[in-house]
Amino acid sequence: MSGHERAFINQAFESNWIAPYGEHIDGFELELTTYLNPNYFVTTLNSGTSAIHLALLLLGVTNGDEVLCQTNTFIASVNPVTYCGATPIFVDSEPDSWNICPKQLEIAISDRIKLGKAPKAIIAVHLYGMPYNVDEINKIAETYKIPVIEDSAEALGSSYKTKKCGTLGTLSTLSFNGNKIITTSAGGALITKDIQLKQKAVLLANQAREHSTEYLHNQIGYNYRMSNVLAGIGRGQLQVIQKRVEARRAIYNIYKEELGSIEEIEFQNEAESSYSNRWLTCVLLPKVSDKEGLRLLLEQHNIESKPLWKPMHQQPVFKNLKSYINGVSDKLFSRGLCLPSGSNLTQEEQFRVISVIKNYFSS
Ligand SMILES: *Cc1c(COP(=O)(O)O)cnc(C)c1O
């Protein structure tokens, strides 16, 4: 927490709006809009997963459809496809951004079309806060007229050229889960340029209850709204977003400077067009055995590190699904490690982590 949240929570309690309605919801949505781009509309929700689910529903994804998904991601990007009765088809990453590869995407689209299965949507992810190759992906999407869901769960505070992540897809989503760069403990948001889509999202998130004194429902809805109390936490958090981004970028820069000289350690590269919030600093280690070797040595020093997200095409639950693979995410997963990157990591703590890593490679 930043210290700004409690005043908003107190306000919610004093006004007795402990509900998924109230001034903090309106305030948080407006402040997010102002932060991202005043031409967009934000709908706050109870999770980033709900936001992706609603995005798919708004695009008309339904039973039997196929959706092309970045394989290199956390499973929340993909699970909602199955909630719609649709099938995820996985697409591998490019080596620089670690995100969806334009070449593989185009191969996948052509192949699906040839099989009579034109994809209904593309889910692209700014993994670890690093923007995907937005221009290339959008160009392909426009050529084939397929909408893009921009999963910006990890990338609030990142941008591509002059635009903020969260405003780069046909529909875009955010997460405010506890592990993200700002949090409401649990929460998410859907972002659109189209006021009518926002109205539809609000309706679906509220059990599809129509404006009527009777409890009238014309379609199936969901209970996906955000609480006014949590929106208050979000308003307090949003005040410090830029500080958080700067802290995380500084952490990345120190790791890069201190570890960059160790032979063959690689980092996720920021293209000229990209500005990453560096949500997590991840390193690609020289050998497969280093991943577990270094993780265990760090653990012995009471330092937690974690493997990268295991790609979706490697997940047992998705083992029968088609994927378009070039080896990049397999390589990343086999040799990658996420290093301590929290906004509150002190320099002293970070140098303790760095010295353990240096020792590992010098012995
Ligand atoms: C966290 C996350 C989500 C989902 O967010 P929740 O709010 O936890 O439901 C989606 N995609 C990615 C890449 C994430 O990291």
Automatic annotation (TrEMBL):
Keywords: Aminotransferase, Pyridoxal phosphate, Transferase. The keyword Iron-sulfur does not apply. This is DegT/DnrJ/EryC1/StrS family aminotransferase. Belongs to the DegT/DnrJ/EryC1 family. The lineage of its organism: Bacteria, Pseudomonadati, Bacteroidota, Flavobacteriia, Flavobacteriales. The keyword Transferase applies. GO terms for molecular function: transaminase activity. Pfam families: DegT_DnrJ_EryC1 (PF01041).
